[in-house]
Amino acid sequence: SFTAVHALQILDSRGHPTVRVTLTAGDGVMVTASAPSGASTGAHEAMELRDGGAGYGGRGVESAVAGINSSIRELLLSRSWPNQRTLDAALCELDGTPEKSRLGANAIVAVSMAAARAFSNLSGDSLHTWIAQSLGTAERLPVPHFNVLNGGAHSANPLAFQEFMIAPIGASTLPEAIRWGSEIYHALGAELRRKGLSTGLGDEGGYAPEISKPEEALELITQAITDAGYSLGEGGVSIALDPAANYFYHDGSYELNGRSYTSRELSNYYDSLILNFPIRSLEDPLAEDDPRGWPELTAALGDRVQVVGDDLFVSNAGRVQIGIETAAANAVLIKPNQVGTVTETLDTLTVADQGGFTAMVSHRSGETEDTFVADLAVGSGCGQIKSGAPARGERVAKYNRLLEIADASPNLPYGLGTAGQKNGGP
Ligand code: PGA
Ligand code: ZN
């Protein structure tokens, strides 16, 4: 059982306040977790509690911190907790709102992640192994999807698409994948300098040059992959896009490349990009408010690329279930703070797996040095993680945690894996 609960306000990678909590349990266990924060959020995400007012532009989290240091502390110290599910259910009940707006999802997710660390410590397992046991999955080192070029809400450049990621799926080990990612990132920097383009960075550590067309970004990236000496596609390095289409969807149409697209036209545009570039994954290709567009796009492109719902599903099991039933996508992005507790996050992974969806575990654009998502990616066996560029402390913290896990567990497989392998099959 817990003996102390203490939260404080810290800064995230954008310099905005966020919540850090430390839990102490008997037997000398002391664990910490910090809440990340998105910039391009889905409308149905669990809600952060922000103070408003003048300080920090209204983004202070002293109220969320105070909730942890009062009613959540009282709850946690009031009894002993048999498992994560019971604790998370009690947190949700104490909050009492469907969107976790009273105590704040930022407060609840930090407590829930810290509790998972405490449960894993008490069980004597590493966090990733504890997660695998909770889910009944086989552990796997994921393919890192490095976001090397930033646009959209994560940068000031005129590029509409938010994320251009490189995925070293042809690497044979995780350390090799990290090396490929780093080399390509630096090759891209050199190429930008050669072309007189800016090497300033966006929120996730990727370059944010003053370009506006997705094709320009894709040309730069494929050139960097080749310059670094790697091949394009399956045996080498593939590309994943997160257009984050909410951001350029206005009044029922998509505003991009100086023109307006219907969802069908945008789907055809993606089709042309897939034909010309080694794209393996498309996240939020359409807006969350375009429910008819998603199944059409997935029917058209889903046999050639992974179609990932992020803002569409907000890591919510019920929303993913609807997505499965309507074939709106074929994959889900997993961000614990979108739904608010570790238990709900794990339940969403289970629903996705049972419905034949793949999953990619993800950081947020506003991050801390917390590495929970690295363990979540390994423990879930989902085979995919995105944590921004292979640069900047809050991004490399996750990749470095993966390197640490790989080093400590040299027999863990690396790569995308198959549906069967996730559940411990061959
Ligand atoms: P966010 O962006 O953390 O700003 O929401 C990440 C994403 O859209 O995947
Ligand atoms: Zn996204």
Automatic annotation (TrEMBL):
<dbReference type="InterPro" id="IPR029017">
    <property type="entry name" value="Enolase-like_N"/>
</dbReference>
<feature type="active site" description="Proton acceptor">
    <location>
        <position position="335"/>
    </location>
</feature>
<feature type="binding site">
    <location>
        <position position="283"/>
    </location>
    <ligand>
        <name>Mg(2+)</name>
    </ligand>
</feature>
<dbReference type="Pfam" id="PF00113">
    <property type="entry name" value="Enolase_C"/>
</dbReference>
<dbReference type="Pfam" id="PF03952">
    <property type="entry name" value="Enolase_N"/>
</dbReference>
<feature type="binding site">
    <location>
        <position position="335"/>
    </location>
    <ligand>
        <name>(2R)-2-phosphoglycerate</name>
    </ligand>
</feature>
<keyword id="KW-0324">Glycolysis</keyword>
<keyword id="KW-0460">Magnesium</keyword>
<dbReference type="InterPro" id="IPR036849">
    <property type="entry name" value="Enolase-like_C_sf"/>
</dbReference>
<keyword id="KW-0964">Secreted</keyword>
<dbReference type="InterPro" id="IPR020810">
    <property type="entry name" value="Enolase_C"/>
</dbReference>
<comment type="function">
    <text>Catalyzes the reversible conversion of 2-phosphoglycerate (2-PG) into phosphoenolpyruvate (PEP). It is essential for the degradation of carbohydrates via glycolysis.</text>
</comment>
<feature type="binding site">
    <location>
        <position position="162"/>
    </location>
    <ligand>
        <name>(2R)-2-phosphoglycerate</name>
    </ligand>
</feature>
<dbReference type="InterPro" id="IPR020811">
    <property type="entry name" value="Enolase_N"/>
</dbReference>
<dbReference type="GO" id="GO:0004634">
    <property type="term" value="F:phosphopyruvate hydratase activity"/>
</dbReference>
<dbReference type="InterPro" id="IPR000941">
    <property type="entry name" value="Enolase"/>
</dbReference>
<feature type="binding site">
    <location>
        <position position="310"/>
    </location>
    <ligand>
        <name>Mg(2+)</name>
    </ligand>
</feature>
<feature type="binding site">
    <location>
        <position position="386"/>
    </location>
    <ligand>
        <name>(2R)-2-phosphoglycerate</name>
    </ligand>
</feature>
<feature type="domain" description="Enolase C-terminal TIM barrel">
    <location>
        <begin position="138"/>
        <end position="423"/>
    </location>
</feature>
<feature type="binding site">
    <location>
        <position position="242"/>
    </location>
    <ligand>
        <name>Mg(2+)</name>
    </ligand>
</feature>
<feature type="binding site">
    <location>
        <position position="364"/>
    </location>
    <ligand>
        <name>(2R)-2-phosphoglycerate</name>
    </ligand>
</feature>
<comment type="pathway">
    <text>Carbohydrate degradation; glycolysis; pyruvate from D-glyceraldehyde 3-phosphate: step 4/5.</text>
</comment>
<comment type="similarity">
    <text>Belongs to the enolase family.</text>
</comment>
<keyword id="KW-0456">Lyase</keyword>
<feature type="active site" description="Proton donor">
    <location>
        <position position="204"/>
    </location>
</feature>
<keyword id="KW-0963">Cytoplasm</keyword>
<keyword id="KW-0479">Metal-binding</keyword>
<feature type="domain" description="Enolase N-terminal">
    <location>
        <begin position="2"/>
        <end position="131"/>
    </location>
</feature>
<dbReference type="InterPro" id="IPR020809">
    <property type="entry name" value="Enolase_CS"/>
</dbReference>
<feature type="binding site">
    <location>
        <position position="365"/>
    </location>
    <ligand>
        <name>(2R)-2-phosphoglycerate</name>
    </ligand>
</feature>
<protein>
    <recommendedName>
        <fullName>Enolase</fullName>
        <ecNumber>4.2.1.11</ecNumber>
    </recommendedName>
</protein>
